[in-house]
Amino acid sequence: MIHEIEPHKFNNEFKIVDPKPTDYLVVFFGDKSLLKKNGNSFEIPKVEDFNQGNIPCHYLFSIDDAAYFLADFSISKELVENASDDYVLCPARTYRYMGDPLLRMGGATAAHIAHWESLNQFCGRCGNATIRGEKERSIVCPKCGNVVYPRISPVVIVAVRNGDKLLMAHNIDNPNPRLFLISGFVEIGDSLENAVRREVMEETGLRVKNIRYFGSQPWPFSDSIIAGFTAELDGDDTIHMQASELSEAMWVKREDIPEYETDVSISCCLIENFRRGFTL
Ligand SMILES: [Zn+2]
Fold this sequence. Notes:
The protein has five helices and 17 strands. It is globular. The longest helix has 19 residues. The strands form four sheets. Strands 12, 13, 14, 15, 16 and 17 form a six-stranded mixed β-sheet that branches. The protein is an alpha+beta fold. It folds into three domains: 110 residues; 31 residues, no CATH class; 123 residues, Nucleoside Triphosphate Pyrophosphohydrolase (Alpha-Beta Complex). Zinc ion binds next to loops.
Protein backbone atom coordinates (compact mmCIF):
# COMPACT_ATOMS: atom_id res chain seq x y z
CA MET A 1 0.00 0.00 0.00
CA ILE A 2 1.08 3.56 -0.62
CA HIS A 3 2.21 4.21 2.97
CA GLU A 4 4.18 0.99 3.36
CA ILE A 5 7.70 2.27 2.80
CA GLU A 6 9.57 0.33 5.50
CA PRO A 7 12.43 0.33 6.32
CA HIS A 8 12.23 4.01 5.34
CA LYS A 9 10.73 6.28 7.94
CA PHE A 10 7.95 8.77 7.40
CA ASN A 11 8.18 11.52 10.02
CA ASN A 12 5.29 13.97 10.13
CA GLU A 13 5.87 15.43 13.57
CA PHE A 14 5.06 19.14 13.37
CA LYS A 15 8.06 21.47 13.48
CA ILE A 16 9.27 24.71 11.98
CA VAL A 17 12.65 24.46 10.24
CA ASP A 18 14.46 26.09 7.34
CA PRO A 19 14.98 24.30 4.02
CA LYS A 20 18.26 22.97 2.66
CA PRO A 21 19.04 23.29 -1.08
CA THR A 22 18.54 19.54 -1.55
CA ASP A 23 15.11 19.41 0.10
CA TYR A 24 12.01 18.90 -2.00
CA LEU A 25 9.96 21.99 -2.78
CA VAL A 26 6.34 21.39 -3.68
CA VAL A 27 4.85 24.27 -5.66
CA PHE A 28 1.06 24.07 -5.56
CA PHE A 29 -0.97 26.29 -7.87
CA GLY A 30 -4.71 25.99 -8.40
CA ASP A 31 -5.16 22.33 -7.50
CA LYS A 32 -2.01 21.10 -9.23
CA SER A 33 1.68 20.60 -8.42
CA LEU A 34 4.60 21.83 -10.47
CA LEU A 35 6.65 18.78 -11.48
CA LYS A 36 9.87 18.39 -13.43
CA LYS A 37 9.80 16.26 -16.57
CA ASN A 38 12.29 13.44 -16.72
CA GLY A 39 11.78 11.43 -19.91
CA ASN A 40 8.38 9.81 -19.62
CA SER A 41 8.09 10.37 -15.90
CA PHE A 42 8.17 13.24 -13.43
CA GLU A 43 10.33 14.32 -10.51
CA ILE A 44 9.52 16.53 -7.56
CA PRO A 45 11.66 19.70 -7.83
CA LYS A 46 14.15 20.61 -5.13
CA VAL A 47 14.81 23.98 -3.53
CA GLU A 48 18.05 24.29 -5.50
CA ASP A 49 16.18 23.91 -8.81
CA PHE A 50 14.76 27.41 -8.46
CA ASN A 51 17.14 30.22 -9.30
CA GLN A 52 15.71 32.60 -6.77
CA GLY A 53 16.89 33.80 -3.39
CA ASN A 54 15.11 32.63 -0.31
CA ILE A 55 11.81 31.20 -1.45
CA PRO A 56 9.13 31.64 1.22
CA CYS A 57 8.11 28.10 2.13
CA HIS A 58 7.35 25.92 5.14
CA TYR A 59 8.26 22.44 6.30
CA LEU A 60 5.71 19.64 5.88
CA PHE A 61 7.36 16.31 6.83
CA SER A 62 10.30 14.14 5.94
CA ILE A 63 10.99 10.65 4.68
CA ASP A 64 14.34 9.56 6.11
CA ASP A 65 16.56 12.62 5.57
CA ALA A 66 14.55 13.99 2.64
CA ALA A 67 12.45 16.92 3.83
CA TYR A 68 9.41 18.21 1.95
CA PHE A 69 8.61 21.92 1.92
CA LEU A 70 5.61 23.71 0.47
CA ALA A 71 6.16 27.03 -1.29
CA ASP A 72 3.94 29.72 0.21
CA PHE A 73 0.97 30.45 -2.04
CA SER A 74 2.08 34.10 -2.27
CA ILE A 75 4.97 32.98 -4.49
CA SER A 76 3.36 30.03 -6.36
CA LYS A 77 2.17 32.02 -9.36
CA GLU A 78 5.57 33.62 -9.87
CA LEU A 79 7.39 30.28 -9.61
CA VAL A 80 5.02 28.67 -12.11
CA GLU A 81 5.29 31.53 -14.59
CA ASN A 82 9.09 31.61 -14.39
CA ALA A 83 9.52 27.84 -14.66
CA SER A 84 11.24 26.50 -17.78
CA ASP A 85 9.62 24.18 -20.32
CA ASP A 86 10.95 21.26 -18.27
CA TYR A 87 8.21 21.88 -15.72
CA VAL A 88 4.52 21.09 -15.95
CA LEU A 89 1.54 21.47 -13.61
CA CYS A 90 0.15 18.03 -12.76
CA PRO A 91 -2.87 16.78 -10.79
CA ALA A 92 -2.21 14.99 -7.49
CA ARG A 93 -3.00 11.63 -9.07
CA THR A 94 0.25 11.92 -11.02
CA TYR A 95 2.08 11.01 -7.82
CA ARG A 96 0.22 7.72 -7.66
CA TYR A 97 2.00 6.50 -10.76
CA MET A 98 5.51 7.53 -9.74
CA GLY A 99 7.81 4.52 -9.82
CA ASP A 100 9.73 5.46 -6.67
CA PRO A 101 7.53 4.53 -3.68
CA LEU A 102 9.14 7.23 -1.53
CA LEU A 103 8.29 9.99 -4.04
CA ARG A 104 4.83 8.48 -4.49
CA MET A 105 4.11 8.66 -0.76
CA GLY A 106 5.91 11.98 -0.26
CA GLY A 107 4.40 13.76 -3.23
CA ALA A 108 0.86 12.58 -2.63
CA THR A 109 1.03 13.48 1.06
CA ALA A 110 2.43 16.93 0.28
CA ALA A 111 -0.35 17.49 -2.26
CA HIS A 112 -2.95 16.53 0.36
CA ILE A 113 -1.58 19.09 2.82
CA ALA A 114 -1.26 21.73 0.08
CA HIS A 115 -4.86 21.12 -1.01
CA TRP A 116 -6.09 21.60 2.56
CA GLU A 117 -4.04 24.78 3.03
CA SER A 118 -5.23 26.17 -0.30
CA LEU A 119 -8.88 25.76 0.68
CA ASN A 120 -8.38 27.60 3.98
CA GLN A 121 -6.56 30.77 3.02
CA PHE A 122 -9.54 32.68 4.32
CA CYS A 123 -11.56 32.03 7.45
CA GLY A 124 -14.79 30.13 6.83
CA ARG A 125 -16.42 31.94 9.72
CA CYS A 126 -15.47 35.61 9.27
CA GLY A 127 -13.70 35.78 5.90
CA ASN A 128 -10.44 37.22 7.28
CA ALA A 129 -7.09 36.03 5.87
CA THR A 130 -5.75 33.09 7.91
CA ILE A 131 -2.26 32.19 9.11
CA ARG A 132 -0.58 28.84 9.82
CA GLY A 133 -0.54 27.64 13.42
CA GLU A 134 2.87 27.72 15.11
CA LYS A 135 2.50 24.84 17.57
CA GLU A 136 0.66 22.20 15.54
CA ARG A 137 -0.50 21.59 12.00
CA SER A 138 -3.42 23.94 11.90
CA ILE A 139 -4.70 27.09 10.26
CA VAL A 140 -5.76 29.93 12.50
CA CYS A 141 -7.86 33.03 11.98
CA PRO A 142 -6.12 35.90 13.81
CA LYS A 143 -9.36 37.89 13.84
CA CYS A 144 -11.97 35.51 15.29
CA GLY A 145 -9.78 32.68 16.63
CA ASN A 146 -11.24 29.98 14.38
CA VAL A 147 -8.85 26.99 14.21
CA VAL A 148 -8.96 24.58 11.26
CA TYR A 149 -7.27 21.18 11.39
CA PRO A 150 -6.27 19.09 8.38
CA ARG A 151 -9.16 17.72 6.40
CA ILE A 152 -9.00 13.93 6.49
CA SER A 153 -12.30 12.42 5.39
CA PRO A 154 -12.79 8.81 6.53
CA VAL A 155 -13.82 6.24 3.95
CA VAL A 156 -14.79 2.60 4.44
CA ILE A 157 -14.18 -0.17 1.93
CA VAL A 158 -15.42 -3.72 2.31
CA ALA A 159 -14.79 -7.13 0.78
CA VAL A 160 -18.13 -8.96 1.06
CA ARG A 161 -17.88 -12.74 0.77
CA ASN A 162 -20.61 -15.16 -0.28
CA GLY A 163 -19.03 -18.62 -0.09
CA ASP A 164 -16.36 -18.68 -2.79
CA LYS A 165 -17.65 -15.49 -4.41
CA LEU A 166 -16.67 -11.87 -3.79
CA LEU A 167 -18.91 -8.84 -4.24
CA MET A 168 -17.19 -6.62 -6.84
CA ALA A 169 -18.31 -3.39 -8.44
CA HIS A 170 -17.31 -0.51 -10.65
CA ASN A 171 -17.94 3.05 -9.57
CA ILE A 172 -19.20 5.28 -12.39
CA ASP A 173 -16.66 7.98 -11.47
CA ASN A 174 -13.62 5.68 -11.61
CA PRO A 175 -11.72 6.00 -14.92
CA ASN A 176 -10.13 2.62 -14.21
CA PRO A 177 -12.49 0.05 -15.78
CA ARG A 178 -11.54 -2.79 -13.40
CA LEU A 179 -13.89 -4.11 -10.78
CA PHE A 180 -13.17 -3.11 -7.20
CA LEU A 181 -15.10 -3.21 -3.92
CA ILE A 182 -17.92 -1.33 -2.30
CA SER A 183 -16.72 1.84 -0.61
CA GLY A 184 -17.94 5.23 0.49
CA PHE A 185 -17.41 8.20 2.77
CA VAL A 186 -18.38 7.89 6.41
CA GLU A 187 -21.32 10.14 7.19
CA ILE A 188 -21.68 12.27 10.32
CA GLY A 189 -23.23 10.03 12.97
CA ASP A 190 -21.89 6.78 11.45
CA SER A 191 -19.66 4.31 13.22
CA LEU A 192 -17.24 2.71 10.75
CA GLU A 193 -19.22 -0.56 10.97
CA ASN A 194 -22.48 1.24 10.35
CA ALA A 195 -20.95 2.98 7.34
CA VAL A 196 -20.02 -0.47 5.96
CA ARG A 197 -23.59 -1.78 6.42
CA ARG A 198 -25.10 1.40 5.00
CA GLU A 199 -22.86 1.62 1.91
CA VAL A 200 -23.40 -2.05 0.99
CA MET A 201 -27.16 -1.69 1.42
CA GLU A 202 -27.35 1.61 -0.51
CA GLU A 203 -25.23 0.46 -3.44
CA THR A 204 -26.29 -3.20 -3.76
CA GLY A 205 -29.35 -3.79 -1.56
CA LEU A 206 -27.45 -6.55 0.31
CA ARG A 207 -27.18 -7.16 4.06
CA VAL A 208 -23.87 -8.08 5.66
CA LYS A 209 -22.75 -9.70 8.94
CA ASN A 210 -19.49 -10.59 10.71
CA ILE A 211 -17.84 -7.27 9.84
CA ARG A 212 -14.12 -7.45 10.66
CA TYR A 213 -11.46 -4.74 10.53
CA PHE A 214 -8.72 -5.50 7.98
CA GLY A 215 -6.43 -2.44 8.02
CA SER A 216 -6.20 1.16 6.92
CA GLN A 217 -4.30 3.43 4.61
CA PRO A 218 -4.02 7.14 3.91
CA TRP A 219 -5.52 8.03 0.55
CA PRO A 220 -4.36 11.56 -0.22
CA PHE A 221 -6.09 11.67 -3.61
CA SER A 222 -9.50 12.14 -1.97
CA ASP A 223 -8.22 13.80 1.25
CA SER A 224 -9.05 10.54 2.98
CA ILE A 225 -8.06 7.75 5.26
CA ILE A 226 -9.56 4.45 4.16
CA ALA A 227 -10.56 1.80 6.70
CA GLY A 228 -10.80 -1.65 5.12
CA PHE A 229 -13.16 -4.36 6.32
CA THR A 230 -14.24 -7.86 5.44
CA ALA A 231 -17.81 -9.11 5.86
CA GLU A 232 -20.10 -11.97 4.93
CA LEU A 233 -23.37 -11.85 3.05
CA ASP A 234 -26.38 -12.08 5.36
CA GLY A 235 -29.39 -13.63 3.58
CA ASP A 236 -30.58 -12.98 0.02
CA ASP A 237 -27.76 -12.62 -2.55
CA THR A 238 -29.83 -10.71 -5.14
CA ILE A 239 -28.05 -7.48 -6.09
CA HIS A 240 -30.10 -4.32 -6.59
CA MET A 241 -27.46 -1.99 -8.02
CA GLN A 242 -27.58 1.73 -7.33
CA ALA A 243 -27.14 3.03 -10.88
CA SER A 244 -26.35 6.56 -9.73
CA GLU A 245 -23.16 5.25 -8.06
CA LEU A 246 -22.20 2.06 -9.88
CA SER A 247 -21.99 0.92 -13.48
CA GLU A 248 -21.50 -2.74 -12.50
CA ALA A 249 -21.99 -4.88 -9.40
CA MET A 250 -21.71 -8.66 -9.33
CA TRP A 251 -20.63 -11.76 -7.46
CA VAL A 252 -17.31 -12.98 -8.88
CA LYS A 253 -16.00 -16.49 -8.26
CA ARG A 254 -12.58 -16.72 -6.69
CA GLU A 255 -11.03 -18.47 -9.70
CA ASP A 256 -12.38 -15.79 -12.06
CA ILE A 257 -10.73 -12.87 -10.22
CA PRO A 258 -7.58 -11.64 -12.01
CA GLU A 259 -4.45 -10.73 -10.06
CA TYR A 260 -4.34 -7.21 -8.57
CA GLU A 261 -1.19 -5.22 -7.76
CA THR A 262 -0.96 -4.66 -4.03
CA ASP A 263 1.67 -1.91 -3.92
CA VAL A 264 -0.69 1.08 -3.79
CA SER A 265 -4.26 0.51 -2.63
CA ILE A 266 -6.00 -1.33 0.19
CA SER A 267 -8.79 -2.20 -2.24
CA CYS A 268 -6.40 -4.37 -4.23
CA CYS A 269 -4.98 -5.87 -1.02
CA LEU A 270 -8.46 -6.93 0.10
CA ILE A 271 -9.22 -8.44 -3.31
CA GLU A 272 -5.89 -10.29 -3.39
CA ASN A 273 -6.46 -11.51 0.13
CA PHE A 274 -9.67 -13.21 -1.03
CA ARG A 275 -8.30 -14.36 -4.38
CA ARG A 276 -5.40 -16.15 -2.71
CA GLY A 277 -7.85 -18.07 -0.57
CA PHE A 278 -7.32 -16.44 2.76
CA THR A 279 -10.24 -16.49 5.12
CA LEU A 280 -11.95 -13.13 5.21
ZN1 LIG B 1 -12.26 34.31 11.38
